[in-house]
Design brief:
alpha+beta; Rossmann fold; five-stranded mixed sheet; six-stranded antiparallel sheet; disordered N terminus; 372 residues
């Protein structure tokens, strides 16, 4: 019994150490020719208009399903342009189209020992005249599928979502549509402070179905009812009283709350943690546990195993630059502080650097000194 106890503790503790230092997950898009009836256009080039350009979302890797940033295997515009050109070969007499990519992200959810993978794409198709873009059609698509390990399917889901966008556009009146001039003040102008959750003068109350809505202060505007449950909160729709289980997060008009199921499957759906530190890293206190860790704890000790796994409260961090949620441990905090060498030296000099209060103190200092 003593050996098994030590084994489960070792797995749970060491499984959380890599933190922000984990290598990126690489996605390689595979294009195949797409037959579209009476197609009169081709995609000439791609404009990257995403609010978050440092990655294309996150994947869960390794035995403990740690979240890591996902990247395409080539520079973004080059990779997406190559995909479109291989999918829709150019023929003489076809109309030149520019694809403005507003969003392209992948993500994963873990439900005990089962997973769901999601690809989300939002594209504005434009014609170009005298160097000026004219919007013809904007289309958003989602592609979702499940299984025991969904990471291998990200390329396929992205390709399917992109192809569905092309199919929709092919059925529009693009041949005769003059389009609407694309101005810098439109939604893809990410310099707008009101579309920045940290800089906005009015934080909109509502539900964030995905990370990009939180970052851009653009939730579904709905009233919610928040009920404390220990250090967490249960959230219900104010009108229907239905418990909210799937959203990424919510805002009550002032504070932000993150769905714990995106980092602790043992918490159950519909429990939210309140963010207490805001900046480049949003942070709060809770338990971090992947699906594998929860299964190991339960399988080894049952109820006792869950108690062991939940014995200490972690600092959980959401990086607004990448969208990745990680527990803040000594190694992961040191990895983050490599972006601020002076602060890293100061942190490493602390004898009590493993104390959660000290780690939160340095996380606050990092946010103050490194604005998003």
């Amino acid at each position: 019994m003593g050996f098994r106890y030590l084994l489960i503790i070792l797995i749970l503790v060491t499984g959380s150490l890599p933190g922000f230092s984990q290598k990126d997950f690489i996605v390689t898009l595979k294009a195949e020719p797409l037959a579209l009836p009476d197609r009169g256009f081709y995609i000439d080039s791609v404009v990257d208009a995403r609010a978050i350009i440092t990655n294309i979302g996150m994947a869960q890797v390794g035995m403990n399903n740690k979240q890591v940033a996902a990247q395409l295997n080539k520079p973004f515009e080059q990779a997406i342009t190559a995909f479109f050109q291989n999918t829709l070969p150019r023929y003489n007499g076809q109309q030149r189209i520019i694809a403005v990519v507003n969003e392209l992200r992948i993500s994963e959810k873990t439900y005990k020992m089962k997973e769901r993978g999601l690809a989300e794409v939002d594209i504005t198709l434009c014609r170009i005249d005298s160097g000026k873009l004219y919007k013809l059609y904007t289309v958003a698509k989602q592609e979702e599928s499940g299984g025991m390990d969904v990471s291998a399917g990200h390329s396929r889901r992205l390709a399917t979502a992109l192809n569905e966008c092309l199919k929709d556009f092919n059925s529009t009146d693009y041949r005769t549509n003059p389009g609407t001039a694309v101005e810098s003040g439109l939604s893809w102008n990410t310099a707008d402070p009101e579309r920045n959750i940290l800089l906005c003068s009015n934080r909109i109350e509502g539900i964030y179905q995905k990370f990009s809505q939180l970052r851009s202060n653009s939730p579904q505007e709905e009233k919610v009812h928040i009920q404390p449950r220990g250090i967490l909160f249960m959230v219900r729709d104010s009108e229907s009283k239905a418990r909210l289980r799937e959203p990424f997060g919510i805002c009550d008009g002032r504070f932000l709350y993150i769905n714990t199921y995106f980092y602790n499957v043992n918490a159950g759906k519909g429990m939210f943690a309140k963010v207490i530190e805001e900046g480049r890293i949003l942070a709060w206190y809770d338990h971090y546990m992947s699906g594998t860790e929860a299964g190991l704890a339960a399988g080894t000790f049952g109820v006792v195993g869950h108690s062991i796994a939940a014995s200490d409260v972690d600092i959980i961090g959401l990086d607004l630059k990448t969208g990745v949620i990680k527990p803040i441990k000594i190694k992961s905090l040191e990895q983050l502080l490599t972006e601020d060498p002076e602060l890293l030296v100061l942190y490493r000099s602390r004898r009590d650097k493993g104390d959660t209060t000290v780690m939160m103190e340095f996380l606050k200092l990092f946010n103050e000194r490194n604005k998003l």
